[in-house]
# Entry
Amino acid sequence: MNNKDANTLSKSTVFKKLALTDKAAEITSFLTSIVIEHSNLVGAYETTIHRILENQHRSERKHLMIVGDSGTGKTTLCDLIEHDSNDTPEEFQLGIKQNLEIVMASMHSPVTPRFLAATLLEAMGVKGGLTGTSYDLTKQLVTLLNQHKTKAIFLDETQHLYALGINGNGGFCKRLREALDWIKSVINRTSVTFILMGVPDLVNLIEADPQLSRRFDRTFYLKPFSIPDTRDSDLGNYIDGILHAACSLPYFNAYESFSTSKTNSLRMFLACGGSPDKLKEMVLGAVLQAQESGDRRITLGHFARSYEHRFQGCLSGSKKWKEQSLTKRIADKNSNPFTLSAADVFSLANLEAA
# Structure
């Protein structure tokens, strides 16, 4: 056996050793796919649907920006809306066409009008013929959007527009101007509502263009959970929602509550900040720890082990967690919020809130 074969065998052995068990795979698949509603996510959903429905009666349509940092729920929001969209077949003279209420796509750098047109055509199911000019692809896109009675386009990762560059005076470079003008042209030629999604800096970019700013007159901020200040906090209810879903699996029948304990909610916030994505990962880790131990009740002990396995040594979502003074205080207490005393948890929470 040569060295290459030995190396391949070694990697294969490692992958087999680290592979999830059937139960762990089932739990991971289930918990990562569920959606737990919370007030900010519901607000984003209702704002988006209202804007789309409202535009059906406007002579001049208004559009929407949804912004938030990574992990605050933009992808989850898209999944919810796509799930609830009503894509239906409709008979017409030459056969049957599909009415696509919602079209979702993501920007990738470098962004050009031709790239935008081709990306949206692919999202609409166009398989070939995407080798034409920007003019030809845009004309094809506009035709299809009108034929399919598309109500909304969700364009995610729109912060990639920044990669096109802003000149030294804060104005738009030629490529950025072309991309923004392309969005305006599609708005003018269709009855589609545009939902631009990205990081908060997107707002400054759109507001710097008077015409786009007038059209995109509303912005919804998807925010992380704030530090819990009551027992029945949004963060605690969100965690309990995931744990309740976990108990629908045959491996668990109880869990330690976070919604009824401000201390537990604060432990969670100190562990990974208010990002829904990180919070969900923390719960998943705790649930897997419970399953591995054969425990039917999910406890703080499982969260402590989840933190050690998944988060310790990584950057926390909490901004002050990275400060040396706070890091040292936590290190003196074994660096695990789930093993700290209630007094220490409240002390650190007060530092975080300051």
Q: What stands out?
A: Residues 88-99, 313-333 have pLDDT under 50 and may be disordered.
